[in-house]
Write a structure and sequence with these properties.
With about 100 residues, the protein is mostly helical. The chain is built from four helices and no strands. The chain folds into two domains: about 1-60; about 60-98, no CATH class. It has helices at about 5-40, 45-55, 60-75, 90-95.
């Protein structure tokens, strides 16, 4: 079995300890986030909707529109909606073509 030199062992130990500290910080932050959602729920906000909004805000407008378009096509194919709604980007393209 190969052993590491003392300097490599120290470097490895430091990296592991840093990762462990970051994991603890992440755990604490997750607790803080959970508390904020509980606070929002306590004042009457829908936590599921809040989580969805937080996720949507992480995406660009283009990514959100693309996701909505794909979702609409799938929902239409499954008979969940009567027609695929026209998205703002489609309107821009059609207006530019006129």
């Amino acid at each position: 079995m190969t052993t590491l030199q003392a300097s490599a062992q120290n470097q490895l130990r430091q990296l592991i300890e840093q990762i462990e500290r970051l994991e603890e910080e992440k755990k604490a932050l997750a607790g803080d986030i959970r508390d904020k959602y509980l606070e929002a729920k306590a004042v009457g906000f829908d936590v599921k909707a809040l989580r969805k909004i937080v996720g949507l805000r992480k995406k660009s407008k283009t990514d959100r529109e693309e996701e909505e378009a794909i979702l609409a096509v799938y929902m239409h194919a499954l008979g969940m909606i009567d027609e695929v709604p026209e998205l703002p980007r489609q309107r821009e393209v059609m207006d530019a073509a006129e």
